[in-house]
Amino acid sequence: MSLKKEKHRNKHHSKKPIPATFYSSVLQSIRQHARGTPHIEICGVLIGRQSDEGTLVTGAVAGEGAKQGGAHVTFTQEAWVRIHEEKNKRYPGQVIVGWYHSHPGFGVFLSDHDIFIHKHFFTQPRSLAWVYDPHSDEEGCFGWSGGDVRRLVRFEIVTDTEKQIGSRSEPSCLVDSKELVPAPRYTFWRSLRNFCMFLLLKIAALLRPIVVSGWHVLRDSPLLHRIGKWFKQKKLVSAEQDTGEVVANTKGQVSVGCGREDGMVSKDSSTHNGRNV
């Protein structure tokens, strides 16, 4: 193994937390992106610079064209093309230092699918992952630590007026990840509700192809055709019976009317004859 690969491996498996610094405007843009579709996961990449001192995140590019759903998100080839075009236009000279995505109502964590994305597309030892829940406003940062992707305990947020990091001797805002977690009394019920929603979505997704295939089988089955034919015949017979009753009632009314007219004529005739007599 070469010295360069050995050095890279040691960095990748270092147990020391990754120093991470975010511009506050970047986090604000991520929140706005996620709140735009609060029931669908969104994604994008983090733009900035990496050095031995840590990772500086100066911008973000939305993953336009990514495959998105209620509980998953995937970077497609179309999304990567758009991301690189937007990055070269807005952030020339900077690189992709990580990615972000939302968990609408699921809380802040990295699922197995999220970890797969990070391990295959963001393999640099200082690559970051930012997760934001637009329902609870909980958010957190993840990065490489000890060969695994773990949640960072602390990271730095720089305001727009303090973007010259070299002139500061101490961080302007060193955030503890625990400060970004909502009140504990809401966490249990929100997590239970979100788990139930996630479970219902998964069940619906699993049952959908079964229901569709079952409907196609029933639609083409002889039994369904017989049942439909029977209903049509019954409806036709019922309509004929209703028509017969209407015709019978009409004839009866005509007969009664004719009888009344004959009676009146006979009475008038007899009266007339009586007078003549």
What's the overall geometry? elongated
Provide the succession of SSEs.
Answer: HEHEEEEHEHEEEEEHH
Main sheet properties: 9 strands, mixed
CA radius of gyration is 38 Å
Corresponding CATH superfamily of the largest domain: Cytidine Deaminase, domain 2
SS element count, helices: 6
- What is the residue-averaged pLDDT? 76
CATH topology of the largest domain: Cytidine Deaminase, domain 2
Order of strands across the main sheet: 9-8-7-6-2-3-1-10-11
CATH level 1 name of the largest domain: Alpha Beta
Strand content: 15-25%
Category by helix and strand content: alpha/beta
First-to-last CA distance: 145 Å
How many structural domains does the protein architecture include? 2
Proportion of helical residues: 40-55%
Low-pLDDT ranges: 1-15, 164-174, 176-186, 263-277
**Total strand segments:** 11
Write down the oligomeric state: single chain
CATH architecture classification of the largest domain: 3-Layer(aba) Sandwich
